[in-house]
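Appendix B. Chain record.
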Amino acid sequence: MKLNQQKGLLAYADEISRQPGEAIEFKVSSSTPGAFELNIVQIQCGDDGPGGPGLKQTPVNASANGSYPARFQKTQVGSFIRIPSSEAFSPSALTLQALIYPTAPELGEQVIASHWCPAKKQGYALLIQDLRLTFEVTGSDGISHTLASDRPLVAGRWYLVAVSIDPDEGEVTLHQLIKEKGLELEQQNSIVSSHLGVSLSKLDAQFLIAGCAALDEDNDPLISQIYNGKIDSVQLHDAALDLPSIEASVLSPQQRTLVAAWDFSQKIEGDEVIDVSGNNHHGRTHNLPTRAVKGWRHDGTEMNWTHRPEHYGAIHFHDDDLYDSQWQTDVFWEVPEDLSSGVYAAHLQQDSEEFYVPFYVRPPRGKPTARLCLLVPTASYYAYVNNHMNVDWGSLIEQSSTCFATLTMADLYLQNQALFGLSMYDDHSDGSGVCYASRLRPMLRMGPHEELWQYNADSHITDWLAEKGFSFDVVTDDDLHAEGVSLIEGYDCVMTCTHPEYYSLPMMNALLSYQHQGGRFIYMGGNGFYWRVAYSPKFPGAIEMRRAEDGMRSWIAEPGEYHMSFSGELSGLWSRSGITPHELSGVGFSAQGFNFSRPYRRTAASLDPRCAWMFDGIAEDEAIGDFGLVFGGAAGSEIDSADVRKGTPSHALVVATADDFGADFHWVVEDYHHAHSAVNGEICPHVRCDMVFYETPNGGAVFSTGSIAFAGSLSHNHYTNNVSRLLENVVNRFLDSEPIE
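Structure tokens predicted for this chain:
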């Protein structure tokens, strides 16, 4: 358990989307004694940066508003397996064995498996200490014994490790055998024995895999010495086995000596850990260690874990995994029946500290309260929150934006504390990529006052809708995944936010079905519908993604680990998964750059009577969006373009386009097949941003901006500008009941 050593006020909610009449719980932690104030507010705009519309929030007369006692709540970080207590785990004669694949043996003490009572200071642990396999045991006499291998462990190799205790001989033997061929590797093998004369205590304590029970400075329980790497085929015997018996048991765990044999290839999609010994010592994982990863049996013949799960009998543990902070509830609020749908937050204040917990109120199920629906990309929010990019990606950020990285207080806090998990853009401490993200933790970078990205960039849309007097309902990705097209089919128009990047199959199908039924769809962003993710009812509030095969990505999934543990689906780019972004919005990700944006210019297609109405009040030669809060223009940041070969409907009209992005904008890597220099905005014709319109069946239509920066231009000149006028024309027409032929 890592503790917060810096003063701060932090919180999160148990849910992110609520209907009127449903409850939401806020979990708060403060390292400052006293009280904090909580007030529910409705957020119209969160951008209070230079030149922005300013923070616009309205107090809500809520029963939850008030002062509450502050307390510090601890967070258990790191993944492990917990098996319920049993004295069977401390037999007089013992063999504990496992296959391990350490990924960072240099990162301090890391426990592979343990049966330890911290109060009595008795028990045993098989661990890595000073790069060596080590066995530590304290018996009923209170004397601690240690036996260590005489060879260091090599990272990224499979080992069979085992320890046996023969009470008759008083001998402890430690085995370390590398499972790969090669003379230089076999030299890492080690078998050491010692007459320690140890006698195990009968302990009614939990058995832990990948960690050890401990007490913190307040005598509160925690799991410490978290292991980094894969573990497979853990077994415990009530006999001192010789090496041939240990190796035979790995292949066929049927010996009568078995106390437990945990088969991680079963129930991969959840948190259950199955004991196949017949003794029912089943357990559960904690903090979402990575499953559906290659085990020691994997031989390259099958790359989908659902086809041969026995090849995926490993779990990858990390000392920085976090699924649920598991804080206690401080404030409970039932959303009033008459509260309108919208963007809300719990605003917490204590002395000079403040923190926002965003949430969304959707309309009652099946009862839209407006004709326009705003779809909030919560899955993409989860993927980005608590990212360490400005620090860990320092050089890449500077290269892509041609300016120095600027560190915020959130950057420094996240880097120093390592308390609240990572984003899907980060690497774990052992260098492996983060494939799970969760909302059940304080989400820094999401809320008013934060950077102009995602949440605050999206607030430009809610601000514009409010300023223009458009009534709208709000629903989230989580809602869309759970309910499908039934959630949105009652709306005349559905509008996205600026960056709906992470999408599940039910979400993609829901939007396609909505369009086929005649719904009007406005895509307000860039780099949308890019990565395929999965949700799981077994892990509420979490999503999963594997950065497989290709794409503009921060890490690369291991070969054979492209299929998600939650669902078995192939992850990676949607364009590699059978539904392209172009089929959904007419455009797909084509380039990115983070230094300046460009205006659109109208094309000849914009004069077509099918779409000329959207340019009412805009001259044919007028630059559209040569202003804006996101790098100074309406087309920029991450941009999309049309491509009929990839699924853009053949009748789609590219009504405006932007190019001339310069050398610092780069074509996406998945679209070129050989490394060369002609991939930047100075010379590559694919580095462009297309604005697209086309009709869909039953009187529907799609309008796509193809740009993350577009919404940042809406408020320019007090919302009187050609970007605002264009969007207003589109929204009015899309809300018009007359079919779009």
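Further analysis of this model is presented in Appendix C.
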